[in-house]
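Subgroup meeting minutes
Present: P.N., E.W., G.H.
Scribe: E.W.

1. P.N. recapped why we're keeping a running log of single-chain structure predictions: easier to compare across weeks, and new members can see raw inputs and outputs side by side.
2. G.H. added today's entry (365 aa).
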Amino acid sequence: MPLYAGIVGLPNVGKSTLFNALTNAKALAANYPFATKEPNVGVITVPDTRLTELAKLVNPQKVQPTTVEIVDIAGLIKGASKGEGLGNQFLANIREVDAIAHVVRCFDNDNVIHVEDSVDPVRDKDIIDTELLLKDLETLEKRLEKLKKQSKTGKPADKKNLQIAETVYQKMEEGVAARAIDLDDDGKALIKEMQLLTSKPVLYVCNVDENSVKDGNDHTKRFMEAVKDEGAQVILICASIEEEIAQLEDYEEKMMFVEEMGLKEPGVNRVILSCYTLLNLITYFTAGEKEVRAWTVRVGSTAPQAAGVIHTDFEKGFIRAEVIKYDDYIALGSESKVKEAGKLGVEGKGYIVQDGDVMHFLFNV
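Output recorded in log:
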C-alpha cells in the first residue's frame, strides 16, 4: 500500500502551484478559491545523488530513481469542521494521507486574493489547526461513547482505552495536537486506529516571493517564531518560480535559475526529501550492469520485506541478502573490490535494512 503526503492549506496560498512544481502535472492553479476540487495525486521522483554516484561506477544500461506519491487537497476555510466550503471533502481527503505538507502564504501581492483579505501566515496556520482539532474532537466524542459502554464489561483493555481517549480529549480541548501528546504504545495504537487528523506528522512550507527565498521576510520570521516549539521543519520556497524551473528541460538552465536565487538546489528537492523523511521512508539500492535502481522501504524493514518490494516471490523464497554499505562501495569502487576487502555482509531474515544499503537477494521459489 503506497504512502501519501498531502499538501494542505487555505485557498490561494500556492498549494496547486507547488504541486505543479513537484510533479509538473499541470494541476489547475487559478486566482480563486477551490481551484482544486478533487485531490490530484502525483508521483514524484526522489532526488538522490547517491544513485548518480553508483551509476558512475557501475555504468548500467538504465538508472531508475525511487518515487513518492503526493496529493494536492482542496483548500480549507473557517467552519470546515462543520462542512463550510469544501470542508467535509477536505477533511475526508486529509484523513487518507500519512503526512502533511502545510503551505502558508508569506508573500504580498494585491493581484492574488486572500480568502481572509490579508496576509498573515500565523493566523492561517491557526485556522487550519483549529478546524482539524475540532474534527478530531468530534471523532473522539463518538469513540468515547462506545468506549464507555465497552468498559462496563470490566475488560482491562477496554478500561485502558477509555482512560487514553479521555486523556487525549482533554489535551486536545486545550489545543494540543494529537501528535504532540505523550502516549505509550497502546495510546499510539488507539490514535492510529482513529485516524486523527492532528496525529499526522507535519512539514511547513512558507511560500515566499522570489527575493525572500534565501533569507525570508517579516512574514516568515513571525511564522517561525510561532512554530519554534513544535519541532517541525520549515522550508522557504517560491512556488511560482519553482514551477517555472520544473518546466525547463535543460539541466543547466534549471541550475542557472537556482543559483540566481542564491540556492544550491531547487527548493522542491528539499520539500520532496522532507516529505520522504516525514513518511518514515528510507532508500536502498540494487546495482548491476542492466540497472542501478533506488527502492523505498519503511524504516525498520527487514531484508525479506525489502526483497518483497522488488517482487513478492523474493520475499516468499528469501534465503539471504548480500549487503554493501554505500560508503564502502564508493570508497572501493566496485563490488569485486568490496568482496576482496571483506566488506560484503551476508545477512539473514532478521537483518534491518539501513538507508543507503546496496543489496543483492538470493531466493528460491
